[in-house]
């Protein structure tokens, strides 16, 4: 991602409706399926937005290719010695019970190769939680700024993952806000307005509170139903052992 994206995410993620809401949705999934402390890897951790949430489920290691991102993580968690920075993942010998890759594989040109790499880092019967942006029709200048190669739908993401992971939970999310967000994206695409700064900067209190309430409302349903569409996709599965 661009340097400005990391800086903005580090400065703006606290109390931002998207980042806070997503953490609660991910936590709802993990609470249902993870019933004891695990060895966890936050793969492509960015500035460390999910580390605090993940620490409730076990010992967390983190990895990101960006040195700037890792510097932000260290700045934020310098006194938290239970977080382990893995800067040379290929030399790391242990395997993990759970790998979380939130909005990561869309940044990788060869996503299949990346998925294979992730599966090899998992223990036998290890779990994977992946989120990605949904629907190529919504690909915009924001995706370009974030250096996304693509957005996904259920079919192509399932085809990418089903050789390596048994599907446990597979759903779209950010369902209730899909229509207003999609309308805004198409408006910005038509007008050729670059809007990443707008959406990653925390909005005013009222809009932020409303968006958060609608988004986090999904956490009460996420384990009961699969949403038919949404701005993002979530896959939770178990490793298919060789």
Could you walk me through the main structural features you see in this protein, from its secondary elements to its overall organization?
It is a single chain. The chain is of the alpha/beta class and 242 residues long. The protein has a single domain (3-239), classed as Vaccinia Virus protein VP39 (Rossmann fold). The protein contains ten helices and seven strands. It has helices spanning 3-12, 17-33, 51-54, 67-76, 111-120, 141-145, 154-161, 178-191, 196-200, 205-216, and strands at residues 38-43, 58-63, 83-85, 96-102, 122-133, 165-173, 232-239. It has a seven-stranded mixed beta sheet with strand order 3-2-1-4-5-7-6. Helix 2 (17-33) packs parallel to helix 10 (205-216). The longest helix is centred in the N-terminal third of the chain and has 17 residues, at 17-33. The mean pLDDT is 92.
Strand order of the largest sheet: 3-2-1-4-5-7-6
Query: What structural class do the secondary elements suggest?
Result: alpha/beta
CATH topology type: Rossmann fold
Shape by Cα distribution: globular
In brief:
The protein is α/β, with parallel strands linked by helices and 242 residues long. It has ten helices and seven strands. The chain has a single domain (3-239), classed as 3-Layer(aba) Sandwich (Rossmann fold).
């Amino acid at each position: 991602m661009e340097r400005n994206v990391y800086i903005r995410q580090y400065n703006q993620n606290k109390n931002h409706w998207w980042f806070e809401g997503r953490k609660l949705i991910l936590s709802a999934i993990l609470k249902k399926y993870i019933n004891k402390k695990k060895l966890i890897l936050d793969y492509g951790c960015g500035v460390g937005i999910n580390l605090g949430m993940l620490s409730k489920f076990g010992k967390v290691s983190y990895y990101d290719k960006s040195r700037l991102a890792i510097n932000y993580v260290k700045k934020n968690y310098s006194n938290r010695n239970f977080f382990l920075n893995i800067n040379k993942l290929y030399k790391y010998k242990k395997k993990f019970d759970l790998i979380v890759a939130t909005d990561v594989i869309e940044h990788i040109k060869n996503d299949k190769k990346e998925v294979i790499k992730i599966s090899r880092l998992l223990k036998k019967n290890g779990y994977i939680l992946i989120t990605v942006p949904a629907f190529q029709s919504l690909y915009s200048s924001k995706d370009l700024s974030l250096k996304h190669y693509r957005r996904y739908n259920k079919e192509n993401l399932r085809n990418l993952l089903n050789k390596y992971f048994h599907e446990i939970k597979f759903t779209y999310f950010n369902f209730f806000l899909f229509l207003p967000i999609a309308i805004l994206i198409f408006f910005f695409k038509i007008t050729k307005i670059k809007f990443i700064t707008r959406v990653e900067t925390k909005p005013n209190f009222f809009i932020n509170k409303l968006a958060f309430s609608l988004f986090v409302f999904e956490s009460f349903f996420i384990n009961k139903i699969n949403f038919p569409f949404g701005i993002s996709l979530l896959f939770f599965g178990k490793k298919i052992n060789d």
